[in-house]
Design a protein that fits this description.
Blueprint: H1 2-26, H2 31-44, H3 50-55, H4 60-77, H5 80-92, H6 96-111, H7 116-133, H8 139-152, H9 161-172, H10 184-205, H11 214-217, E1 224-229, E2 251-257, E3 260-262, E4 275-279, H12 282-289, E5 294-298, H13 303-306, E6 312-318, H14 334-338, E7 341-347, E8 350-352, E9 366-371, H15 373-379, E10 385-387, H16 398-416, H17 422-435, H18 441-447, H19 450-469, H20 471-503, H21 509-527, H22 531-543, H23 552-558, H24 565-590
Antiparallel strand pairs: 1-4, 1-5, 2-3, 2-4, 6-9, 6-10, 7-8, 7-9
Helix pairs in contact: 1-2, 1-19, 2-19, 4-9, 4-16, 4-17, 4-18, 5-6, 5-7, 6-8, 7-8, 7-23, 8-10, 8-23, 9-21, 9-22, 10-24, 16-17, 19-21, 20-21, 20-22, 21-22, 22-24
Length: 593
Amino acid sequence: MTSQLSSMEIAIVLTLLVIAVVLFATEKVSVELVTLLILIILSGLRIISPEEAFAGFSSDFIIIIASIFILSAALEETGILDFAVVRLVRLAQQSNNLMLLTIMLVTGVVSAFMNNTTVTAMFITPLIGLSKRINLSASKLLMPLAYAAILGGTCTLIGTSTNVAVSGYIAKAGLEPIGLFEISGIGFIIFAVGMVYMMTVGQRMLPSHVDQELAEEYKLQKYVTEVVVLPDSPLVGQLVFASDLTTLNLRMLNVIRAKENFLPDFRTRIRANDILLVEGDVDTLMKVKETKGLQIMADALISKDLETENIRLAEIMITRQSNLINRTIKESEFLRRFGLVVLAVSRHGETLRSKIGSIRLRMADVLLVQGAPERFEQVRNSNHIAVLDEFEPVLYKKKKGLIVIISFALAILAGTLQVLPLSIAFLSAAVVSILLRAISTEKAYNAIDWRLLILIGGMTAFGAAMENSGAAEFLAQGIVEVMEPIGGRTGILAGFVILTVLLTQPMSNAAAALVVIPVALRAAIELGADPRSFAIAIMLGASVSLVTPFEPACILVYSPGKYRFWDFIRIGSPLTLLLVIVILVLVPVFWPM
């Protein structure tokens, strides 16, 4: 009976794992909700206790990750990072190769102590502005930027949340936690290999996209036309945004009245002889031709009407911390809130133009918007959207910036010398930054990626479920039986690292590592090997998975760089394979098995 019960629990845990992987990949349900539902099921079936279900959320590594988010945001808020970027840009303009080398080196160093997604987001706008100034495709800079940020995170414990989460898990398993700079040696080698690859092979494979007019690039010509309101039209006197045109599923863009081109608001009424710039699909535009009192002037877009002295087109990006994520353009009241009209959305190389108001926004979506120049200036420093044009540094607050840097450095020193636990050291630095007003309390809360914390806390509990149910032992025995005849301990280690790399495609890096590590620790114990070596190899494997653009840093550069999915596969796959080999060769050297 006990054996049957154990088998059933193993089946339940593994089934939940498969379901989680599918839901994470499809994003039909939010990641944090999936995680919480799994915890509820596991607790309800008594595979884990309530204490085990929520232990991950009260761990010190959650405090470390949250504190790093706040300190990173404080540095950004004080403008000290923008100041550094300006210096970097000036230094790097001597040659393209020197520029790329400098960008990757600085990004990697900063990412060793900050969240790599934050670092990538910080550099995107200035690098796009730089690429325009020197007439270089942004695609030549943004993928190397993302890769440098990801690989730079392997150099220290706090370089990525995956490292912190793994260290916390193995500490709970009774092993020694990972030291702050314990992985710096192998991390530096991984980062150096990545830099050399991107400066040579990778640089040659990077695409180069020719700049086009934004209207042409988003193919608006097929969807926008000019409509004249005739004197006998029933539209005369109607409010623009409540007119009969809305029943035709047309979107109003501009109004040209007596040679004045302006953006309508909710009080604007239609007058006779107005020329309306409207957007809709081909079938809808054909219906306009049959509507009484309307006359189509042009079946193709007249670009000069979309961009004038008082109206401009630009691209904006939805930032990582934006409260627009998972909300539709209509729900977020985008026009009222920002004074900008959304014409199209670019997502992962695909341009979305139909039913704009119902598009649910995601992190790193690039929106083609139209508005008055002063509106772009007002939103330029918004935490929710980033204007992708010329880089405008925020006001440099030198004194507060230095306070944050000193607090950060003292936290690292205190943690390294074990004067204070790492969690207390970094929490103290974050609190000091808030007390000295380097960042407001509200912005500090907004800077924390709560979804990531829920995911890490939940997947830590899932690791306990793997152990309690026997699923970890079951999988460990299977992998050992398959891989040991092929390559002994190294072969088994390779199997776990490759499995981790594969799981990071549908799952986050941290989640993939936390799923694999309980199995790997069990296998290491059965082999008489050092479990810690296996844990560190898997942790590093999760951080070098660059096969697809599903890593958040890569998602951020996907649309701004005009990349295609294939670009990441053909450039990232060889690099991932190369780095996996480096890990398999060097981990046993640094941490003998």
